[in-house]
Amino acid sequence: MSEANEGMDVGYVAHLARIDLTSEETALFQGQLNQVLQYVEQLNELDVEGVEPMAHAIPVYNVLRKDELGLSLDHADVVANAPSSSDGHIRVPKIIDQ
Amino acid sequence: MKYEATIGLETHVMQKTNTKMFCSCKCEYGAEPNIHVCPVCLGYPGALPVMNEKAIELCCKAGMLLGCEINPYSKWDRKNYFYPDMAKNYQITQADEPLCLGGQVTVEVEGEMKTFTLERIHQEENAAKNTHIAGASLVDYNRAGTALMEIVSNPCMSSAADALAYMAAVKQIMQYGGISNCDQEKGQMRSDVNVSVRPVGQKELGSKVEIKNMNSFAFIKEAIEYEIDRQTALIESGGSVVQETRGYDPDRGETFTQRTKENAHDYRYFPEPDLMPVKVAAEQLEQWRSELPEMPAPRRDRYVAELGLPEYDAGVLTADKATADWFERAMLHTKNAKAVSNFIMGEMMRLLSEQDMIISESKVTPEKLAEIIALIDAKTISTGAGKQVFEAIFNEGGEPKAIIEAKGLAQVSDDSALDGWADEAIANNPKPVEEYKAGNAASINFLMGQVMKASRGKANPGAVMQMLKQKLDA
């Protein structure tokens, strides 16, 4: 929870989430999110010595399915749902760097 | 000053499943775009992923074949990034608890046996395929969400030769184990290569450069060699290597900067809330272990020790599982392992490569090859005629005996026919005859050639030789 201690870099997090914020919004959320983090920070008061970290709250494992074919979506519906398409592909603004 | 390179590989292998990793859409290469897609692999809101049990099995089997420890508990994480090849804006992967831990591959590199160690193998999902056109990019999500394993080696290699030998060995083991077809042209096996250079004797590694996403052995070799030279020259000229991600441009034979450390992605990994962890029970592991096929290395040793094949032959035959299986089926019908090996390495591989076929498509079956070999061993036909029969069956199908009859390939050992040809050869070539009689034993080969020519290759060479000697030595 080092971010809470140092305060959250809302500008950076907004960039990662590809959200444009005005400087007023950034300041507003900065305060609100810091409060949220401080609230969660209370968990650090608990002694968790010897408690295994868990990925889920309920002890359920191996939720598996057989390697069997199911239904896929209709191609026309998929393409219709995209803002732009071309030759059956979803068309997006040019991307190069990955 | 002398420098040494350190190389590590992250090898992505697409598993051989019918359906995708977390949904039941079909895995099919080359299908019409965006036909094998559903709310899960398109990242529609509210869709929930469910693990494909076959993929988990194949990943664990891959781990067992590569000597990994199978993690009794593994979990899933989200790797967050914005790129249209992942419609969810995250890739499901395994960050801190992968399915397989450790492992190693032992392989011969330029005559020396080397062991390369693995850090881990984790399961993840594949991204969609992008095609770039003028002013736009086109995305096909058929590949998005298919099962993909990442085999991560330690930085334990020191040359392009090491890296290639390692990749070839991993590929062979994956193919043998039925884990993946590893067809590099179809992108079923791709590697990211980490390369760093340091002065010999320096303890800490140099700054590493990652070269992304290469599927061809030739390009990997070129990229590593280029990168070692580039980094060495940079350090020697007093500069320093910048930690970055580079791409390889095969046309120019160079690597180029893609992304520097400063603008590296921040993936913000966190546990995947939609998927429960995986626990692999010991009994399950034992079951899977019992299903693993024999690997190439022990198979190679067995061919040498039990069948008396040269190391070279054993290596070629076991290089690919289908070929080794074919060889073993032929061996059920003959004891002449060397003859089977010669036919596979010679005629079979030549014809398969000329006609761009795979061994399972050959019209020459293991049984038919065994029959051809039996006919050669019985001296019914010559080895040369055997090759003709092989090629005829390969192209047209048919039975060896019928082809021998139709083409008149049966060998002539009959004295009366040979007698005439031998007399003729002796009469027409006084000079070699003289030389032979004067003590030049090799001259008889010329006469032998004349008889073979007269018989149009059908004379039994052994019988001809015997007859010529009889006549000349008399």
UniProtKB/TrEMBL annotation, chain A:
Its EC number is 6.3.5.-. InterPro entries: Asp/Glu-ADT_sf_sub_c, GatC. GO terms for biological process: glutaminyl-tRNAGln biosynthesis via transamidation; regulation of translational fidelity; translation. Signal peptide: none annotated. Pfam families: GatC. One of its GO terms (molecular function) is ATP binding. Keywords: ATP-binding, Ligase, Nucleotide-binding, Protein biosynthesis, Transferase. It comes from the Bacteria. It catalyses: L-glutamyl-tRNA(Gln) + L-glutamine + ATP + H2O = L-glutaminyl-tRNA(Gln) + L-glutamate + ADP + phosphate + H(+); L-aspartyl-tRNA(Asn) + L-glutamine + ATP + H2O = L-asparaginyl-tRNA(Asn) + L-glutamate + ADP + phosphate + 2 H(+). SUPFAM superfamilies: Glu-tRNAGln amidotransferase C subunit. Allows the formation of correctly charged Asn-tRNA(Asn) or Gln-tRNA(Gln) through the transamidation of misacylated Asp-tRNA(Asn) or Glu-tRNA(Gln) in organisms which lack either or both of asparaginyl-tRNA or glutaminyl-tRNA synthetases. The reaction takes place in the presence of glutamine and ATP through an activated phospho-Asp-tRNA(Asn) or phospho-Glu-tRNA(Gln). Belongs to the GatC family. Heterotrimer of A, B and C subunits. This is Aspartyl/glutamyl-tRNA(Asn/Gln) amidotransferase subunit C.
UniProtKB/TrEMBL annotation, chain B:
Its EC number is 6.3.5.-. GO terms for biological process: glutaminyl-tRNAGln biosynthesis via transamidation; translation. GO terms for molecular function: ATP binding; glutaminyl-tRNA synthase (glutamine-hydrolyzing) activity; transferase activity. Coiled coil: none annotated. It is an enzyme of class 6 (ligase). Allows the formation of correctly charged Asn-tRNA(Asn) or Gln-tRNA(Gln) through the transamidation of misacylated Asp-tRNA(Asn) or Glu-tRNA(Gln) in organisms which lack either or both of asparaginyl-tRNA or glutaminyl-tRNA synthetases. The reaction takes place in the presence of glutamine and ATP through an activated phospho-Asp-tRNA(Asn) or phospho-Glu-tRNA(Gln). This is Aspartyl/glutamyl-tRNA(Asn/Gln) amidotransferase subunit B. It comes from Pontiella sulfatireligans. The lineage of its organism: Bacteria, Pseudomonadati, Kiritimatiellota, Kiritimatiellia, Kiritimatiellales.
